[in-house]
Amino acid sequence: MSVSKPSKGLDLAAITQARLTTGARGRALTTREMLHFALDHARARDAVLSDLDMPACADALSRAGLETQLSASAAGDRRAFVQRPDLGRRLPQDQADTLAALPPCDVALVLGDGLSAIAAQLNGPGFLIALAARLAAQGLTTSPVILARQARVALGDGIAHAMGAQTVVMALGERPGLSAADSLGVYITQAPQPKTPDSARNCISNIREAGLSVQDAAAEAEALILRMRRFGLSGVALAQRQALPED
Amino acid sequence: MAYQCDLGGTRFRFPSLKTLLARATPERSGDHLAGVAAETPLERVAAQMALANVPLTDFLDDVLEVDGDGITALIFDQQDAQAFAPIRSLTVGGFRDWLLAPETTGAVLRDLAPGLTPEMVAATSKLMRVQDLIAVSRKIEIVTRFRSTIGLAGRLSTRNQPNHPTDDSQGIALSALDGLMMGAGDAVIGVNPATDSVADFIRICDVLDVIRSELDVPTQTCCLGHVTTALDAMQADAPVDLVFQSIAGSDKANDGFGVTLAMLDDAHEAVRALGRAPDGANLMYFETGQGAALSAEAHFDMDQQTMEARAYAVARRYRPLLVNTVVGFIGPEYLADGKQILRAGLEDHFCGKLLGLPMGVDICYTNHSWADQDDMDHLLVSLAAAGVSFVITVPGADDIMLNYQSLAFHDAQFIRDTLGHPPAPEFADWMARIGIGEQGVTLPTLETALGRLRLPAA
Question: Which of B368, B394, B397 has its CB closest to that of A115?
Fold first, then answer.
């Protein structure tokens, strides 16, 4: 076994974000450490419990020329949303009827609160503006951005179905950790069905200021969408298709 | 068979034992999600009253009611009629009273374990308050051994869990060293890998083995990858002390984990053949958790706590060194808040111990649960009183890879300071030799300790 050289002047923070013990051992956490932890937890709880600021999102999107449409899952409030994932995946019939009246499109764009409305608000508009421009340049039509409250990933399937879109992009806040509450996740599905398994989706995660940039994420999403539409499938099946030689 | 209870002129009917168990379960979100929970508090108590009158022999039938389920077959196969004989004539309620009686000692319970089925044990727990779960668990001593001896009465072991979001060797080593210098890791130093390749699995095993062997720590190490990855790594002669796997209570749920009993049999044999442990040592490590079967839609309308107890039938087939429930990890759709997590942790510990398992608990929660550090403190104190074999500990209670909060190394220290409960004797001796926890001894800094290790190149 080869051995790494012990390095001098190690920067521990560059190696790990773990909350290592820096002070004296054998005693309780200091007041400072205890309150720092409480602050991080409070930020995470805020991210989970807060509502998506629809007017602010709509405003940011409209400044880039994107229209918006409000929608919501069958989960009435945050508590129901958190405890009943089945309701957060379901699109009520009246919502479906409203969406069905929109003009047809190739790709449905959805921004949902997910488990962090803060992440959706901070990084959602930027990502969707960048992606919409890329898709337009490819000649694909996109829906108005559907701003969805109490939304789980699979809510996008019902939205796409109501609108007759072949591809759905669901951008939503990821479950916050203590170190980051602003992480956006994007799930893209080709030909979504009422019981689409997660294995039939492609996911881009950790989209945030200190992670993957909205521009890089949009480029990755565009490439995925073009391949999905070429082969008519997504998820694990797309990965297997890509493994075959190009025809 | 149908069950019923009359309360104030209302007849509550329960069409099967499985339904009765679900309706009798103390409130939790997962059973509502599954649509099997009691609809009102009155219905729940009616179910508990009916359950108290059910003869234990009713549990010798197929409670899950799924033809061909391999875990049901395993449960029947394990059940020892002779061991069951002393309680054969009891009802569920009578069994609770019997468990709490002073004459029912730990030795009696150890002999009883092979006679019990998971469903009997789960049923009884539904009639027990928190203090009952603690009182009975405390009587039971389940001792397992590898390089350290885990589960001795009056002791509390810890898993040192140095996870890192990219499995960085130095990052893992820093957290592991931090824990060791806090006296954490006598149950196992165990990493949940972020990556799933065999090469990374082997590298993580190497990193952990270097730490253990260079510091001469009387403990064992584990990379908690999939059992098939462990099999590949063992073929490549990786230093695998323990084989790990997540397990659940039905064949279909285990399919969701990509695991079968045959795979576990192979892995158990392979790790024994490596010969790293003393003769007779315990070589497997399992994790479980309420809600695992439901999340795989493999619960068959059985309540999540009874499904959890069924997973222990899988565990006990392998005489494991360690088993723990990851009680608050799976999320608020299964256990909504601190109150539900507290009870579930004590139930799982009770059921595991009564079935003869070396039961530990990952005392933990996620950020979308209605829970915080105060709830974890309550559960830790209760589990220490109940004689929990081990708990999971991470730096500062923050698992930076799995993004949830478990206990801090400091929290185990808190129990030692307030209640006693030293670690495994071999590990306590090692700590004394190094001076860990001793007044006036200056331990190396983390930078120095890391610099001294001859870690494998990444």
Answer: B368
Searching chain A, which residue's CA lies closest to the CA of residue B451? Answer: A6
Give the tens place of pLDDT for each residue, A117-175: 999 999 999 999 999 999 999 999 999 999 999 999 999 999 999 999 999 999 999 99
Residue B323, domain member (yes or no): yes
Q: What is the ipTM of this complex?
A: 0.93
Supply the CATH number for residue B398's domain.
Answer: 3.20.20.70
Q: Which CATH class is domain A52-243?
A: alpha beta
Burial of B213 (0-12, 13-18, 19+ CB in 10 A): exposed
Place of tokens 């795979």: B263
* Neighbour count for residue A201 (Cβ, 10 Å): 23
| A5, pLDDT greater than 70 | no
Distance from CA of B306 to the nearest CA of A (A): 20
- Strands lying side by side in the sheet with A201-207: A68-72, A145-149, A107-114, A167-173, A184-190, A201-207
Q: With beta carbons under 8 A apart, name residues in chain A contacting B404.
A: 177
CA distance, residue B418 to nearest chain A CA (Å): 12
Report how far apart the first and last C-alpha atoms of chain A are (Å, whole number).
Answer: 43
Radius of gyration, CA atoms only, chain A = 21
Task: Select from B400, B409, B446 the Cβ nearest to the Cβ of A12.
Answer: B446
3-state DSSP assignment of residue B404: strand
Query: What is the tally of structural domains in chain B?
Result: 1
Would the CB atoms of B178 and A41 count as touching at under 8 Å?
no
Phi and psi of B259, rounded to 5°? -135, 145
* Interface contact A20-B410, CB threshold 8 A: no
- Kindly determine whether residue B171 and residue A179, on different chains, have CB atoms separated by under 8 Å: no
Beta-carbon separation of B164 and A1 below 8 A: no
pLDDT tens digits along B108-132: 999 999 999 999 999 999 999 999 9
Q: How many other CB atoms are found less than 10 A from the CB of residue B217?
A: 23
Backbone phi, psi, residue B100, to 5°: -85, -15
By residue range, what is the domain housing residue B213? 144-449
Q: Which residues contact A160 (CB under 8 A, 6 or more apart)?
A: A108, A166, A167, A168, A189, A192
**pLDDT > 50? residue A6:** no
Residue count of chain B, please give it: 458
Residue of B nearest to A15 (CA): B171
